[in-house]
Design a protein that fits this description.
Blueprint (H helix, E strand, L loop, with lengths): L1 H19 L1 E2 L2 E2 L33 H13 L3 H8 L6 H20 L11 H9 L4 H18 L5 H20 L5 H13 L3 H14 L4 H11 L7 H13 L10 H8 L14 H16 L7 H14 L3 H11 L14 H18 L10
Antiparallel strand pairs: 1-2
Helix pairs in contact: 2-3, 4-6, 5-6, 6-7, 6-8, 7-8, 8-9, 8-10, 10-11, 10-12, 11-12, 12-13, 13-14, 14-15, 15-16
Length: about 375
């Protein structure tokens, strides 16, 4: 019976992928690994699926080194020092706060503790206990609570609300410890979504972020969720928010990519419209995102987020060469939307990567013709 269900699932996947894999001069076919016609992503220097890092959207070796030390020794001090030396108003601080909180949350999920076992993430509790006035530790703790709420409780349940209320209080404490730091308020944007802040209450939090970091891409992405149709806004409100951000984006800012994320948040669950990913709305959003990454400041940590979203849309739009150009920039790390929505982000990314390679080669491309 299990084999029957697997065969049915594979057949359904085939029906979904068949029209997607069409191209002008025929079709891009999926063949077994090792087949003479198989396109091999390794030919392009891409990492093997098992080597893909699902923790972060892009490289941050200092963070990886510190995470390794903290998780191996259960000593928080390396994390405390790294955050203390990370600029408060930049994107990197927000990403590092998320990473430390996520590491502690996953540790706790893996080792909830018991009579004879210390619970995972104990280093974060020690950090808060030994350095209660440390702004970095307070921000990580607030984000940890937010992630715990989304990970362990159903939105709207009493348990979810209790954890979110605790997170809200933690955000307030973190904000008092670092008045100029936007991160506590960015964390609160997720609290606002979970607790259902009124639009007026949400705007009050948002204005505090704009006062501190008006072009913070991570903050804009967090705010976009609130304005989406599935939460407390509408499709039009989300589009208006994203387009307004793009319109005021200064040179070198990635905010020009915001409309692409708004489109992603409102994709139809079942797309029955032929050519949707070549439509004017999607094409315009892709164009803005491509412009954003091409003109982004060197080393902008948010560029990886935009590149991963571009890979998703470019593959769907059968723009194979452009997808490959983004892949050579983003390959290796997959801790970003849309892959993180999958139970296996690395596998999801690998499917799109294989499709991009197959489409590129089916149209005459090769490793030799791909510019690096």
């Amino acid at each position: 019976m299990e084999i029957l269900w697997v065969l049915i699932a594979l057949l359904m996947i085939g029906f979904v992928l068949l029209p997607f894999l069409r191209r002008r001069r025929g079709a891009v076919g999926l063949v077994p690994p090792g087949h003479p016609d198989a396109a091999d992503p390794a030919n392009y220097g891409f990492a093997r699926q098992e080597e893909l890092d699902i923790r972060m959207p892009g490289p941050d070796q200092d963070l990886l080194d510190v995470l390794d030390v903290v998780q191996r020794t259960q000593d928080h001090r390396a994390a405390q020092q790294l955050l203390a030396g990370t600029p408060a108003d930049g994107e990197q601080r927000w990403q590092r706060v998320q990473a430390f909180a996520g590491a502690a949350s996953l540790e706790l999920a893996q080792r909830p503790g018991g009579v004879s076992e210390t619970p995972g993430g104990q280093w974060l509790r020690v950090w808060r206990s030994e350095a209660p006035k440390d702004a970095g530790g307070a921000a990580v703790h607030a984000e940890f609570l937010v992630q715990q709420a989304w990970r362990t409780a159903a939105p709207g349940s009493d348990e979810f609300r209790i954890i979110m209320e605790e997170a809200k209080a933690a955000c307030g404490e973190a904000a008092l410890l670092a008045p100029g730091d936007p991160v506590p308020y960015i964390v609160e944007l997720s609290v606002a979504r979970g607790l259902g802040y009124s639009q007026q209450e949400f705007e009050q939090v948002w204005l505090k972020i704009l006062d501190r970091a008006p072009v913070h891409m991570g903050a804009h992405l967090a705010a976009l969720h609130y304005w989406c149709e599935k939460w407390h806004g509408s499709r039009q409100q989300a589009y208006d928010f994203a387009e307004a951000a793009a319109a005021r984006a200064p040179q070198g800012s990635l905010l020009a990519a915001m409309p692409l994320f708004a489109v992603f948040e409102h994709l139809p669950e079942v797309n029955l419209v032929s050519g949707f990913y070549q439509s004017e709305v999607v094409s315009k959003a892709i164009h803005g995102a491509l412009h954003a990454v091409h003109s982004a400041r060197p080393g902008d940590p948010m560029a990886a987020h935009v590149r991963h979203m571009l890979i998703f849309f470019l593959v769907r739009a059968e723009r194979w060469a452009e997808a490959m150009s983004q892949l050579i920039q983003a390959d290796g790390h997959v801790g970003a939307l849309p892959w993180t929505l999958s139970p296996d982000p690395a596998a999801e990314f690998a499917v799109y990567r294989a499709l991009a390679v197959a489409g590129y080669e089916a149209n005459g491309g090769s490793p030799a013709t791909l510019p690096h």
